[in-house]
Amino acid sequence: xxxxxxxxxxxxxxxxxxxxxxxxxxxxxxxxxxxxxxxxxxxxxxxxxxxxxxxxxxxxxxxxxxxxxxxxxxxxxxxxxxxxxxxxxxxxxxxxxxxxxxxxxxxxxxxxxxxxxxxxxxxxxxxxxxxxxxxxxxxxxxxxxxxxxxxxxxxxxxxxxxxxxxxxxxxxxxxxxxxxxxxxxxxxxxxxxxxxxxxxxxxxxxxxxxxxxxxxxxxxxxxxxxxxxxxxxxxxxxxxxxxxxxxxxxxxxxxxxxxxxxxxxxxxxxxxxxxxxxxxxxxxxxxxxxxxxxxxxxxxxxxxxxx
Length: 307
Prior knowledge:
Strand content: 5-15%
Largest sheet: 8 strands, parallel
CATH superfamily: Aldolase class I
InterPro entries: Aldolase_TIM, DapA-like
Pfam family, one: DHDPS
Protein name: Dihydrodipicolinate synthase family protein
CATH architecture: Alpha-Beta Barrel
Radius of gyration: 18 Å
Distance between the termini: 25 Å
Keywords: Lyase
Number of helices: 12
CATH class: Alpha Beta
Number of domains: 1
Family: Belongs to the DapA family.
């Protein structure tokens, strides 16, 4: 049940072929780019992973392939976003069998559960597994907020609930969490456009999106701010912001996948009903990406700054 909840953990994209099958070779290229940049974990099956479109067998294949390829360098986590407690418990069991070292969990999907129901849902899944758990708190997109009182009940009852992916869009919540729980609950920011601010006021890490196209720049921001080299981190972050804003759009999957084509670490194929970008929208996003790449900064040496 050991997990170090810090650093950059990419919510990786799922790679598909033009025939809508898993592209495991491109998936490995994508994961290798993340490892080479120095990420601290890999999160499978999130929104960017198009989890809701994957079959159970595809999720198992991705978990096993990622675990095998990563080979213990960093922990591999599986996201749980299910409609029923029974299905969530089963997915946690399967993820553990397939080698995942941790779970990220959303509240129940589709049904707007009460606070009591959400707490009981998390408790049931946590008590079914020994894997450490990070709760994904994103009331903006998923309409259910996990409050501090709910977290209090959860972490008192379930020692494997250890972290929160903080995506409320309210950075003051980071200070509230720290004031209430100290180090009992690790915080990983989940909003790219608030990442540096969140890290500077106490977030322990960053579950990132644009890392899927620009892993080195993402990890550099984290490592530089951690080492106190704030000015350098800010300079990279300001360059990055037009790209980071692609993460806070309903079409974030298509936008980020297109960016990864430009950096040669991913393809843009998505699973229907999503469609590859077309027309004016494609031109608009392409311009944002190309403009950023044209002035892409030269990064300082950012690895091993804190050893």
